[in-house]
Design brief:
single chain; Rossmann fold
């Protein structure tokens, strides 16, 4: 996934080694297999599609294929930061297609580079310089803000297929790994209703060697909405950073979900985005739409995640 760029980042930090046992598949082998997985429509009530809109250059869009089936004014907006802060807007395509199928306009910066229907060449490896620093990533947190700007402008533009369909109060931002840090960078935007941080967390200052991840822990103070961290288990290289973030957040509602048996690659390429996508959809539906059934996943002593053997779950200030 994203040619396992995060492993290269951590190798530069001295956290992992780039060397892999000969008997195990290489990152390139895994990426090649993922690229063959067909695009999916998601399991939600609105079969989704992937497209590139000429009016929004350098972004990939996921949306319900038949927008007329979504009740007027009920299409949510979810803007996504890619793993590695790359410009592959399809690097988490099964996950994002699943979210779109529940009535969301999902936008990721970059090109359509992954999957059998890819329109552009796959990503090339980005290696660190001799001092361990990585070059600036091809996307930035500003790209997420621009996506929100575009979506909300389309909501009121005469002739747009999104005119009168978008719920301008149902806007969320999220991201994977470096993209999760991008999401935290823009979390102070007053238009955002919730934040979804996946397999990510702000690095300690001394470990920041990729510009897209250069963010201080103090940025967490700008959160003004509920936030959820969805991580792998302790083998996820972002687990400790995400857990540390969560521990520092006490001024807004927050939740922390660790999916057992999953590492940094999460469940993105499992059918319909796997467990993490299901959690993300329930969180978005609750936070943005007030869905009481979705809320049961997180609230009460008998909440859905409370007794789920596949996860470890913690929460605070939820109500």
């Amino acid at each position: 996934m994203v040619y396992r760029s995060i492993l290269a980042v951590l190798a530069a930090l001295g956290v992992v080694s780039c060397a892999a046992p000969k008997e195990e598949p290489t990152a390139e082998d895994t990426d090649a297999k993922e690229a063959l997985i067909p695009d999916t429509e998601g399991s939600g009530p609105y079969a989704s599609l992937i497209e590139v809109d000429p009016a929004l250059a350098n972004y990939v869009i996921y949306r319900p294929a038949d927008l007329s089936k979504v009740p007027e004014g009920k299409l949510g907006v979810f803007v996504w930061g890619n793993g590695g802060c790359t410009d592959d807007g399809t690097s988490s395509r099964l996950h994002l297609s699943e979210i779109a199928s529940h009535g969301y306009l999902v936008i990721a910066p970059g090109k359509w580079r992954n999957g059998p229907n890819a329109k552009e060449a796959p990503l090339e490896r980005r290696d660190p310089s001799p001092d361990g620093m990585f070059p600036p990533p091809p996307t930035s947190a500003e790209d997420l803000t621009k996506a929100i700007d575009w979506a909300l402008a389309e909501a009121g533009r005469e002739g747009s297929q999104y005119a009168s369909r978008i719920d301008q109060k149902a806007v969320a931002v999220g991201g994977f790994s470096c993209g999760g840090v991008q999401a935290l960078q823009v979390a102070g935007d007053p238009r955002i209703g919730t934040v979804v941080v996946q397999n990510s967390g702000i690095l300690p200052e001394e470990d920041q060697r990729i510009p897209g991840m250069s963010l201080q822990k103090s940025a967490l103070e700008k959160l003004h909405t509920p936030v959820i961290y969805i991580q792998g288990d302790k083998t996820d290289i972002a687990y400790e950073n995400g857990l540390d973030d969560y521990g520092r957040i006490n001024h807004v509602p927050a939740a922390f979900v660790s999916v057992k048996g999953k590492d940094h690659e999460g469940t993105y390429f499992e059918p319909n985005g796997g467990k993490a996508a299901k959690v993300a959809v329930d969180w978005l539906n609750w936070q943005l739409r007030g869905d009481t059934e979705a809320a049961k996943t997180f609230l009460g002593d008998a909440c859905g995640l409370c007794g789920d053997p596949e996860v470890e779950f913690d929460r605070k200030n939820l109500r």
